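Changelog entry: the RN212 ligase record was regenerated in this release. Current contents:
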Amino acid sequence: MAVPAFCNSCLGEPRNPTPRFYLTSCGHVFCEVCLQKGKKDECLVCRSACRTLVLSKETSPDIQSLFMRVDVLSKKYSKEISQISEFQEKYRKRLFTYHKQKIAKLEESLKKVTQQMQQIQCMKPPEKTTPLPFSSTSRNAFSIPSRKQNVYSSYSLHSSRPSTSET
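Regenerated C-alpha cells:
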C-alpha cells in the first residue's frame, strides 16, 4: 500500500470518482479542483513559479517512488544495490585476475631475459676498462683557448701560404 496522497490545499484524498491529483515542481500536491482555483503556473502553498504533473499509474517510476512506503522502497533499492554491488565485485575480480596474469607473464619474461644476460656474461671474456679519451691533461680540439695561448696555435689552418714557423 502506498503512502496516501492528499491535496495540500483542501487536504482531500483521492477517491474513486475523484478529480485528478497533480504534483508541482516545488513538491506540493493538489487536487484538480484546488489547482484550478489558483493562478496558472504558481504554487498555491509557496507561491513560487512551478510546473505540474498529473499523478497516475502511467507516471514515471521515479515520481511514483515518492509515494511508496519507506520499507517497500528500501527493499526495492536494497535489492538493486545488492545486484549492482555483486556486478561490480565480479568486474573487479575479472580485472584483478587479468592484471595478475599479466604480471606473471612479465615476471616470467624478466626471468628469461635475466638468465639470457647471465649466459652471455659467462661466455664473454671480461672487458678491460679503457680510460676516457679526453682526460683532464689532454686538450680537446673544441676547447676554448686560454688568453695566454695563441688563438691560432690549437687550430690547423689550411692555407696556401706557408706559416711563419715554416719560413
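The helical segments are 32-37, 61-64, 70-123.
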